[in-house]
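Let us begin with a simple case.
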Amino acid sequence: MSNAGKINEYPAIADLFGLLDGWRHLPDYQLERRADVFFALFLPEVLEEVLSKDNSIVKIRRPLIPEFPIRTDKKYKNDKNYNLSKKVDYFALSEDGGRAFLIELKTDMQSIDKGQIDFIKSTARKGIAEIIWGVLAICQTTKERAKYVHLLSNLSQFGLVKHKGEVLSEDILDQLHKNAVPVDRCGEDCPTECRSPCRWRSERTRQGKKFTEMLREVEPAKELPEVSVVYIQPKPKSDDPICSGWRRIYFDCFADHAKERGSIGRRFAESLCGWKEPAGLCPPQS
């Protein structure tokens, strides 16, 4: 059977952005969480363009780290195992390692709130060393240890963490990951909390102890970058609560850059022009 007469047999990039354009007007739909990967495609180059001044050229390392966890302050004095965190949308580092950037993406101007701004302000004030110590503390207690090993790998590539003062090698990362993934050979019916006489329970305990011992030897690097904050938002705001010293990047800037970067960039730029306006204000379209 011939396919010659069929139209739109396969989804195209325009279909994807068409859904985002329409769905963003619906209650509780979070455009930011679905569109963040498209911003990430162009963000390093946009940062380089915005942050470079005169003869001061800023280059950004690839890849960025999304949803970067920042450990929150203790709420209970006796709780030594808390692992609560808030996430910064992207973490970026300059190629020379001298500047780190906490980047927040806002697709809705109404979602810019003072509480979050205060948290990011206090985080930037802490510095990279304390931020990394927070990541390591979460890594010790979280049930997602294996995922945090991947995060440590990213931080190692940035040169921000060391093992016994040396580079966090692939061998050490492999060992951390091996001990982060619990042994489970009991079968599909094995409960999450294994109890005696489970023959693999002792092996999981051994893994946990080994992981903890190895992680204690991981620490922030000695030379660490200064921290800056960048906000990505649809457009300027007259009563903007964002700190005056922070860099802002508006959707127009992204659109100007993206439209010169292939078919995905051109279609993304087209949507960005519509996303500048608040969702829900335009009349429904069939």
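The second case is a distinct protein. As before, the sequence precedes its structure tokens.
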Amino acid sequence: MKGTIALLFVVTVSCLAIQETRAQQAPIKIAVFAPMYLDSAFKGNNFKLGNTNLPKYLLPGLEFYNGVMMAIDSLNAEAVNAEVLIYDSKQGEKELQEILSKQELEGVSLIIASFNNRNEIKRLADFALSKKIVLISETYPNDGGVSENPYFVLINSTLRTHIDALYKYIQRIHSTDNLIWVKRKGAIEDMIQGFFTELQKKTPSLALRIKTIEMADSLNQQTLLAGLDSNRNNVLICGSLNEPFGNALVKTLADNRDYKGTVIGMPTWDGFKDLSKPEYKGVEIIYSSPYNFPRTDKVSVAITNKYKNKFQARPSDQVFKGFESMYHFPKLLIKHQDAFLSNLSDKSYKVFNEYDIQPIRFRRDSPIADYLENKKIYILKKLDGQIKPVI
């Protein structure tokens, strides 16, 4: 492995040495897990998808991997002493267990993971706990049923944390507007509204006055329009994660320009492409995200240009997430070493985002954190295709 990079896709494992191991100092060892679905793309050594476009389910993991690789190039340029092991997490339960039992994982100090299935989270989190390895979970889904595991770190914050940030934003900016909570019938919708109601009861200041409009399933424009006020700013709060429902909410304001309004969406709207439709021009859309990728700073532009030159495509947020996690956290690990877990919010090597990583305890008197969570939430405004943080 000295001074080389070996891509072993055929055995579902890629092993990368960032630089030659210095004799006087062992490299830090990092494992990366991403859902790349290599079995879907390769049969033995042969690529089996031909010249057709890659299936959409392959893209998020592949883009995350590409971002990780670009970060490795940057760390290489800085002569960072590290070894990185990259695994495809989509090889089935048996294969994952075999990976976790491999001798090569001995000495790993950091795991970075991009999950897309809740059932995969706890298995890897339990392994990290047993080995006392910090596990950085970069993507949705969130906790995966993890508890009593202070080594499990959620960068993509939980829905409760997002609702808390959105409530504070509404209280600060829109408290005197015509506030309407719009929801579908459903258990998840009831849970989301429950979070909001709980905040209403706990707030030390005057509680927000919010009307609720509940739809049976799909959104009915006439029912919603009956609750709007032509003389005030109308704030429509989407109390559902259902994308078509959220889209219909935005469309209502776009179709009825006589009403001045703002739509406040859920954190899942971060990747909602329909929000960029030209017919939605002029509609102010607000949503929350733990990520803010401005794409205009020096690092973003460099990544974008390099990605376009290599892949003839525009990098998605997954590329930036892969880059940021692979660059930021290894640098913090090298700086803080044994105190790494206590310094995850250190801004020394900020790439794009700030983190406020706090212990979460299901019981207040518990001496052990159930997990660590990023509490830094950006409130983003999307207007005429442009996205800017408002808080």
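The CA atoms of residues 68 and 326 lie 5 Å apart. Residues 159-289 form a domain with the Rossmann fold fold (CATH 3.40.50.2300).
Keep these points in mind for the review questions at the end of the chapter.
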